């Protein structure tokens, strides 16, 4: 359990942590409200939500999203369940304190037809923290001050490089790197339900480390051991005549 103010003052890279967190939580609250309104016993709220759609577009998340007792709660690990190639249940355990801390998500900028071969179909991130908070919403359409638990991941994004000269067709592993930490989108929050599964990301040792002395900028991001480039590992079952990527499977996953 962490007091929000104390937590932010002990991590130099967590500037705008609270504003970003509130912006992340706000649309999730709206989705939850819509789900509640869609229930038959709450049909009378449907008109209310419809009338508030335009008003919500101008609502400042910082003015209506609060954390009960000003606290967020830290977890050491989380688990993600997915469907394997042979229709079994698989589980990946993510622990930010170990090397098993990388996740993958579906990218939003690729259409279902896959019209552009240069666009990568997945997003990759390193999990820096696993948290939950009891959130109180006081904006338009509120029905009380009851707190609602929401889980979230604090991540550092990778960015895909050389998409045209790598990938399955080129016969080369896809390459990643970390964007500059002072970039606005270098860090973000992720809903655990959006995570497909864990993934294997390997350093390109030949490219070397970013910090020869092993001293980075952020103790939270642990960037002292960053490499200039990384490879995305691909797992193929040896008995398969036609290789199938085990992580390239549509599946229903939930955060654990």
Task: Describe what you observe in this structure.
By secondary structure, the chain is an alpha+beta fold. The protein has one domain. It is 15% helix and 30% strand. It has helices at 4-9, 17-38, 46-56, and strands at 2-3, 65-75, 78-83, 89-94, 102-106, 122-137, 148-157, 159-161, 175-177, 187-190, 195-198, 201-203, 230-232. The strands form three sheets. Strands 1, 2, 5, 6, 7, 10 and 11 form a seven-stranded antiparallel sheet that branches.
What is the fold's blueprint, element by element?
Elements lengths: L1 E2 H6 L7 H22 L7 H11 L8 E11 L2 E6 L5 E6 L7 E5 L15 E16 L10 E10 L1 E3 L13 E3 L9 E4 L4 E4 L2 E3 L26 E3 L24
Antiparallel strand pairs: 1-2, 2-6, 3-4, 5-6, 5-11, 6-7, 7-10, 8-9, 9-13, 12-13
Strand content: 25-35%
When the domains are counted, the total is 1
Instruction: Specify the structural class.
Output: alpha+beta
Described by the principal axes of the CA atoms, the overall outline is globular
Weakly predicted, low-confidence segments: 45-52, 112-117, 238-256
State the helix count.
Answer: 3
Strand tally, please?
13
Give a quick precis of the structure.
The protein has three helices and 13 strands.
């Amino acid at each position: 359990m962490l007091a929000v103010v104390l937590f932010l003052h002990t991590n130099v890279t967590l500037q705008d942590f609270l504003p970003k967190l509130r912006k992340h939580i706000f649309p999730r609250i709206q989705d939850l409200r819509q789900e509640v309104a869609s229930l038959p016993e709450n049909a009378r709220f449907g008109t209310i939500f419809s009338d508030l759609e335009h008003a919500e577009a101008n609502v400042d998340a910082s003015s209506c999203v609060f954390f009960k007792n000003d606290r967020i709660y830290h977890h050491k690990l989380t688990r993600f369940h997915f469907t394997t190639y042979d229709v079994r249940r698989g589980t990946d355990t993510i622990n930010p304190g170990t090397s098993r801390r990388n996740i993958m998500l579906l990218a939003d900028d690729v259409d279902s037809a896959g019209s552009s071969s240069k666009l990568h179909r997945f997003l990759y991130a390193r999990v820096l923290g696993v948290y939950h908070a009891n959130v109180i919403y006081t904006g338009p359409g509120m029905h009380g001050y009851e707190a609602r638990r929401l889980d979230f991941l604090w991540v550092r994004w990778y960015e895909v490089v050389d998409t045209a000269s790598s990938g399955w067709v080129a016969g080369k592993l896809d390459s990643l790197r970390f964007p500059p930490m002072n970039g606005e989108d270098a860090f973000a929050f992720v809903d655990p339900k959006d995570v497909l599964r864990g993934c294997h990301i390997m350093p390109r040792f030949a490219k070397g480390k970013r910090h020869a002395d092993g001293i980075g900028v952020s103790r939270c991001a642990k960037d002292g051991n960053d490499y200039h480039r990384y490879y995305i590992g691909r797992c193929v079952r040896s008995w398969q005549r036609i290789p199938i990527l085990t992580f390239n499977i549509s599946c229903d996953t939930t955060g654990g």
